[in-house]
């Protein structure tokens, strides 16, 4: 049986304005695969302990409420194992782009087969509707991923009291930056129109803002987590729990690829090379972002992350009673 104190469950304060506040618990927080009963231990201000029993993914129900109770004044609306969410979000995004390319370039001949940019693959009909729906859903999932990253990265640094390792943008602010980038991409995706109806300024702000925010967030989180692992190794301690060495290596290669693509863009502009180089860099940059996101699944799997979506409620009893 595994226990964890909800008072130690880290929630990024930046996202507390959301109606549903995701509470992300690390290490032993995910229910066992065979759905064995396990408990959550909570310590009150009077140092008293109450227990709630969880049956696999289904959590304790408050008597008479018919809803799941997590702690005083909080009702659990649902939960999920988050290790597969980054993969699903990335596959949905890449699948949407591939569908738009096949529809636009192969089937309907709206764009050339060789190196059309992603935006033009989504300007015709019906591909622009595919793009709006697919990218909007994927970005919403990515926002959830960034909320989880805020807690995961902070826990990696805090586990060995390595908060001072975060010399880059702090994890919570970096994750907020990543989430804002996803909102910008939703804005940039939903405004795509054919012909002269296309609001290019609006779309450019959304698409460029997405890439800028993702790069800033990914570089910051990778730097912070890497420094935590490095300091642990230098101190002769075990590496922080929840960090996959393979995933960290993938993240480092993605960051190197970011800088390489940036250098290519600068060189192309200096030399004056055109003819599809911008589209090529856009495709490579998109793939690079998604590879970084997919690598998070290895970290989330290693630390056995489970996310509970809760809603503040008034008038709940102070102790949850199992039914």
UniProtKB/TrEMBL annotation:
Q: Which InterPro entries match?
A: CWH43_N
TM helices/strands, residue ranges: 89-109, 129-153, 201-221
Tell me where the signal peptide lies.
1-29
Pfam families recorded: Frag1
Record-annotated CWH43-like N-terminal domain positions: 84-301
UniProt keyword annotations, A-Z: Membrane, Signal, Transmembrane, Transmembrane helix
Lineage top rank: taxon = Eukaryota
Q: What is this protein called?
A: CWH43-like N-terminal domain-containing protein
């Amino acid at each position: 049986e595994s226990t964890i104190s909800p008072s130690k469950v880290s929630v990024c304060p930046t996202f507390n304005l959301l109606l549903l506040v995701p509470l992300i618990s690390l290490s032993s927080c995910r229910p066992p695969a065979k759905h064995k009963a396990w408990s959550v231990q909570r310590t009150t201000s009077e140092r008293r302990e109450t227990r709630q029993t969880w049956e696999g993914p289904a959590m304790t129900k408050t008597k008479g409420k018919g809803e799941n109770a997590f702690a005083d004044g909080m009702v659990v609306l649902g939960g999920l194992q988050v290790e597969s969410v980054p993969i699903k979000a990335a596959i949905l995004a890449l699948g949407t782009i591939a569908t738009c390319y096949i529809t636009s370039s192969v089937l309907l001949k709206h764009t050339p087969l060789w190196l059309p940019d992603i935006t033009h693959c989504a300007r015709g009909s019906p591909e622009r509707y595919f793009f709006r729906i697919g990218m909007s859903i994927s970005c919403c999932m990515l926002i959830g991923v960034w909320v989880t990253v805020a807690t995961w990265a902070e826990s990696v640094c805090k586990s060995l009291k390595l908060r001072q390792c975060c010399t880059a943008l702090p994890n919570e602010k970096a994750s907020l930056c990543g989430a804002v980038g996803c909102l910008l991409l939703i804005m940039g995706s939903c405004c795509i129109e054919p012909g002269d109806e296309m609001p290019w300024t609006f779309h450019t702000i959304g698409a460029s803002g997405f890439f800028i925010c993702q790069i800033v967030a990914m570089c910051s989180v990778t730097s912070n987590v890497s420094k935590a692992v490095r300091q642990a190794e230098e101190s002769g301690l075990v590496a922080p729990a929840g960090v996959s060495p393979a995933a960290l290596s993938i993240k480092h290669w993605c960051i190197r690829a970011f800088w390489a693509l940036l250098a290519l863009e600068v060189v192309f502009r200096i030399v004056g090379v055109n003819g599809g180089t911008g589209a090529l860099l856009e495709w490579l940059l998109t793939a690079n972002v998604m590879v970084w996101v997919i690598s998070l699944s290895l970290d989330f799997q290693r630390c056995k992350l489970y996310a509970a979506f809760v809603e503040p409620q008034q008038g709940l009893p102070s102790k949850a009673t199992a039914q």
